[in-house]
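Following the same procedure, backbone shapes were mapped to integers, yielding the entry below.
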Amino acid sequence: MISVSWYAFNITQDFFDPFYPGTKYEIGEGLYIGWCSATLAICSGVCLLCACKLEQPEPTPYMYHQSKGTVYSAAAPSHRGASSTYDRNAYV
């Protein structure tokens, strides 16, 4: 966008200068296409920035505690102290 605007400024400055001896150009379709494409690029960058927000990773069922070297599970605790070894929670 900066280069397109800079070129448009130079064209406008040369066009309105009565003492400019060279060929005078006018603002054409190429500049409008450049401004539109730069605007779309900025808008898509903003959309990408908003879509890629920083999120915390979801907690997994197994959390590893590095300081103690143990693994904690979020699963239900086992029933090993039951009187029967084959209760309704022990599936084969």
Remarks:
- The domain at 1-75 is CATH 1.20.140.150 (Butyryl-CoA Dehydrogenase, subunit A; domain 3).
- The beta strands are 62-65, 70-73.
- The CA atoms of residues 4 and 33 lie 10 Å apart.
- The chain has two helices and two strands.
